[in-house]
Amino acid sequence: RTMITVTTPDHTRVRYLLTQDETGHASIEALRKTDKAPVKLAPEHWGEGVAGTLFYPEDFANGQFFWAKQTVLLPAKYGMRDCFVLKSEPGPGQPTQYASVTSWIDQKTGSPVYVEAVPQNGSPTKQFVFYDLEQIGGLWLSRQVEVKLAGKPGSTILLIDHGSPHAHLTRKDFSLTASQSTGSDSGQ
Question: Which of 16, 49, 152, 163 is an S-S bond match for 4, by CB 3.0 to 4.6 Å?
Answer without folding.
Answer: 16
